[in-house]
Design a protein that fits this description.
mainly alpha; about 80% helix; flat
Amino acid sequence: LSGIIASSLAQGYTSLEAAINASLAHTIAAKKYKNNNYSMSPQDIIQGIKILCLQLLFKLQLLMKKKQKK
C-alpha cells in the first residue's frame, strides 16, 4: 500500500488523493483475488493492480472511440 501511495505522490497527486487511490486499488485487487480468502502476497497485489489498470485503460479507449464517433 505504501508503495502505491509513494508512486502516486511522485506523479503529482496530493497526499489525500494518493491515499484514497491507493486504498481503492488495493481493495479492488483484493476483492478480485480468487486463490483464498485470508491472505495475499505482494506479487498477488501487484498482479491484481496490473489487471485493474489494464481494465481501466480498455474502458478509457472505448470511451474515447465513442467520443470520436459523435
